[in-house]
Amino acid sequence: MLILNHPVMRPLTAAFVGALTTLAFTPFQYWPLAILSPAILFLLLHHIPVKAAILTGFFWGLGQFATGISWVHVSIDNFGGLPKVASLGLMVLLVSYLALYPALFAGLLNRFFPAGKTRYLLAIPSLWLLCDFARGWVFTGFPWLWIGYSQIDSPLSAYAPLGGVGMVSFVTIFIASMLTLFVLSRKWQWILISAVPFILASGLSLIDWVKPNPDSATSFALIQGNIAQERKWLPSERWPTIMKYMGLSRANWDADIIIWPEAAVPAIERNVTSFLSNVDAAARMNESALLTGIINVKDGKYFNSVLPLGDVQSGEYDYRTQPRYSKHHLLLFGEFVPFEDILRPLAPLFNLPMSSFSRGGFIQDNILAKGRKFASALCYEIIFGDQVRQNITEDTDYILTLSNDAWFGHSIGPLQHMEIARMRALETGKPVIRSTNNGVTAITDYKGKIIAKAPQFETQVLRATVSSTTGLTPYTRFGSWPLVGFVVIGLVVLGFRKKN
User: Fold this and answer.
1) Which chain regions cross the lipid bilayer (predicted)?
2) Annotation marks residue 131 as catalytic
3) Are strands 460-470 and 211-224 parallel, antiparallel or unpaired?
């Protein structure tokens, strides 16, 4: 350990260890690394000054995010219109910002809980969770690569219906903390305690939080258009794109519901109302419904929306009264630009197509199609578990998420996006229907298992029949508040004990 006391070696070791966490997530899925990597971080933080702890945590974050969200650079580099040096500079800024949260965790830990068993039993998992929640909220939030997502195929996923991905993260970090305590103390009791969450998980996995509803079986046809992103919004490509989706849909009108991806219609809705009326009529004639992503304008404001057509409760398509879901959580710079009067003139990156959207409501009515109710989440929104949770009611049948990950090419980003969507199904006990432009287009069951998936980067129609569920999971009813309450109360009690 003497070599780690060198002012350079400890941060470099932390960066390498942080990078290992990427291998815990899809497509690699070596989920034990999500326990091992934080455990090594906690060892590196043992008995070092607060400033050294902050630096160590920061470099661990640099390793994690430089590798884990490298896919963001694909979008910036290909569509941002910036020189390579500038695009790499923006990535450095983004990764450095995200690394501040592990740095905050490490600084708070070594400042207020420098030693003792309570540091490992409660302080470490609690502070980690609170810093994760902060990252998911500040500047509209970026809760990507939460440790809990890496456990979607591990036994610890059984905690998701109970307390969401936050509880899975808390338990994962608790296990890592116990392993650290074992290494430091050489007492086997901590190994036994680290096994308790796995034992409890085996029992939780046997609980049926919700019940499958065979009467709700619905056949879906998900159209993956595989439209090149760089050509999608060219005026000359509008009608070829529309006709491609229509051609793929005609052979699948026997499905209960046909689904097109986010902004599948590359036009403002009011400019293609005649076409949409024809689609609506065709769907009705075939006793089917069609859901599509589209751009809508209302009172001079642009909204990224989901539009239902065909067999829907609202009747024949009427542009003025048609129900829609409008995206609430907008992607920074991709869909809105803060301080746009200042930033837009600086670089093409801040003037990407469709980067001036307005927000829909945080909670909106479920979309109704063919008698089925869908809680919607457009693209980036699926990473906000609490928003998805609050839009699910006793009557919700499915979670619907439309996306366009063509921005990120052949990177790991779209695969991580699908992993997050699977967690939403497991948390809420509702199947996820995910339609994308070029992948990952897939359908999960209510336990987050993928039951049908289309290959990426191919024009495909994914057909599958899936049933919904009745009932609500504890997480859907209560969210993460019981866990957060426990964490906050625990930290307050520890604080008072230290003062006394």
Assistant:
1) 28-45, 52-74, 86-109, 121-146, 158-183, 190-210, 478-496
2) no
3) antiparallel
Helices (H) and strands (E) in the chain, counts: 16, 12
Catalytic residue among 379, 381, 419, 453: 379
Taking each helix axis as running N to C, give the angle between helix 84-112 and helix 50-68, from 0 to 180 degrees, rounded to the nearest 10.
140
430 catalytically annotated: no
Neighbour tally for 268: CB within 10 Å: 12
Six token digits for residue 421: 């969507």
Residues of the chain with CATH 3.60.110.10: 211-472
| Amino acid letter, 409 | G
Give residue-wise pLDDT tens across range 161-203. 999 999 999 999 999 999 999 999 999 999 999 999 999 999 9
131, 262, 370, 381: which one is catalytic?
262
Q: Span 211-472: which CATH code? A: 3.60.110.10
Q: How far is CA 166 from CA 23, 64, 159, 169, 235, in A?
A: 20, 18, 9, 5, 44
Residue ranges of alpha helices (H) inside 225-272 are 238-250
Stated as kind and residue range, the H or E segment containing 166 is helix 160-185
Contacting residues for 93 by C-beta, under 8 A, at least 6 apart: none
327 included as an active-site residue: yes
End-to-end alpha carbon distance in the chain: 34
How many angstroms from the chain centroid is the CA of residue 327?
Answer: 15
Q: What is the pTM of this model?
A: 0.94
* pLDDT band, very low/low/confident/very high, at 339 (cuts 50, 70, 90): very low
Q: Exposed/middle/buried for 84, CB within 10 Å: 0-12, 13-18, 19+?
A: exposed
CB 454 within 8 A of CB 435: no
The residues, ordered by sequence, that sit 6+ positions from 290 with a Cβ below 8 Å of its Cβ are 249, 257, 258, 259, 260, 279, 280, 283, 308, 309, 310, 369
pLDDT tens digit sequence for 420-454 = 999 999 999 999 999 999 989 999 999 999 999 99
Q: Which candidate in 131, 232, 269, 327 is catalytic?
A: 327
